[in-house]
Structure formats: C-alpha cells, structure tokens
C-alpha cells in the first residue's frame, strides 16, 4: 500500500482490501486506519490497476456509516478521476490492454461514486446533486462485467 511499493504489490494490496471490506463489512472497520486513507489517495495514482482496486475499496467502504469521515475527500478524488478520463471512456472503445485497464479503473470509479451517493449522500460535501449528476452522466459501466 505504501507509495514506494511496486505497482503490482499495491494493486494486489488494494484488491485484498476491497475483498476484505466487501466480505467482512463492519468487521473490517478496525483495520481501515491501515489502508482506507491510502486507498483514497491512490484513486489518483498513475497506475490504472492501483486506481481500479483503490476505487473498489472506497466503493465497498461507502456502505458503512463510519465512512462519512472520508466521504467528501473520496468523492472529490473520484470526481477528479472521472473529469480526467470520463469523456474519453464514454466515447472511445478500449482496444489494447492498457486502454482496457484504464477503462476498468474508470468503471470502478463510477461504481464507487455511485456507492458514495447512495450510502453517504448527506456526507458528500457541498451539493450532492452534482455528485449524482456526475455519476449518471458516466453510466453505464462499460468494461467491468462483474459489476
């Protein structure tokens, strides 16, 4: 999870944290101080796989009420990612493996923003209508067949 670790190690770590948060739910909360802030910051990472799994961790965490503490920062990070990659994601088809990985990271960000809107609407910060609008503009998910 450390920024100095390799991209492969970091993406694997966030893959595991996402599964932990998704499967254990509120039982995972005691471990959040180890990875949740790092996941929030990793949404802006250069590596698309790290962004994908960090966004998924954030989306899974949004279901818990304690997530309200980090919801405004997470929503802001996701919005920045969608502003940067969202339009290209909607208009172009991913043809090579790098483009597909970027597309999967955008899909994960869209899903995470939707989870924050659904479960943390009052904690998004500012006007939640903008967050809902951004989420709706970027639907449907195009590449993540699991979601």
TrEMBL record:
What domain of life?
Answer: Eukaryota
Matching InterPro entries: ARM-like, ARM-type_fold
Gene3D superfamilies named among the record's database cross-references: Leucine-rich Repeat Variant
* Name recorded for this polypeptide: Uncharacterized protein
For this protein's source organism, the top of the classification is: Eukaryota, Sar, Alveolata, Ciliophora, Intramacronucleata
């Amino acid at each position: 999870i450390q920024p100095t670790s390799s991209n492969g190690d970091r993406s694997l770590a966030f893959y595991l944290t996402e599964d932990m948060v998704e499967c254990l739910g509120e039982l995972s909360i005691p471990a959040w101080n180890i990875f949740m802030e790092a996941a929030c910051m990793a949404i802006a990472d250069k590596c698309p796989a790290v962004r994908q799994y960090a966004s998924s961790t954030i989306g899974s965490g949004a279901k818990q009420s304690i997530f309200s503490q980090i919801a405004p920062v997470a929503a802001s990070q996701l919005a920045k990612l969608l502003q940067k990659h969202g339009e290209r994601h909607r208009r172009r088809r991913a043809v090579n493996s790098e483009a597909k990985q970027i597309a999967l990271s955008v899909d994960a960000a869209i899903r995470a923003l939707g989870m924050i809107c659904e479960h943390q609407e009052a904690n998004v910060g500012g006007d939640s209508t903008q967050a809902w609008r951004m989420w709706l503009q970027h639907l449907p998910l195009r590449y993540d067949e699991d979601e």
